[in-house]
Amino acid sequence: MSGTTTSGPGAIRVAPGREHEMLELNADRTDDERLTLVVTNTGDRPVQIGSHLHLPDANSALELDRAAAHGFRLDVPSGTSRRFEPGASAEVAAVALRGRRRVPGIQRGKTSADLADGPQGGAPVPPVTPADEGAGRG
What we know:
- By secondary structure, the protein is mainly β.
- It has one helix spanning 130-134; strands at residues 34-41, 47-50, 62-63, 72-74, 81-84, 89-96.
- The protein has a domain at 31-116: Urease, beta subunit (Urease, subunit B), CATH 2.10.150.10.
- 4% of the residues lie in helices and 21% in strands.
- A four-stranded antiparallel β-sheet has the order 3-1-6-4, with no helix packed on it. Strands 2-5 form a two-stranded antiparallel sheet.
- The longest helix has 5 residues, at 130-134.
- 16% of the residues are buried.
- Residues 118-125 have low confidence and may be disordered.
């Protein structure tokens, strides 16, 4: 696994003897839990999005389909980020947030505090079940 670290943010640790096996992040995600978006930095400074930021809360200089991105984060290793240079566009992969789906929102009025209610005008997200909690998704 070239380009990976063994300590610190984004570290990937594997069992001895398995270092050369392919590792797929979020392999258990369904097609409904995946999204591809185009992000354009319309600002004059580089902007980074962290691994667990709710995408609609991203810097307002980033142009993206925020309605489609509701309830999603970047599909990158935990603790890492993606940098967008001024004027550049990039296609990014995103995955649905899991767990209790409660997102406080870093920009007041921009996003819902509770994704369990679904996006505005959208269907509610099913509640977390005991099976979800047992699988670490609650």
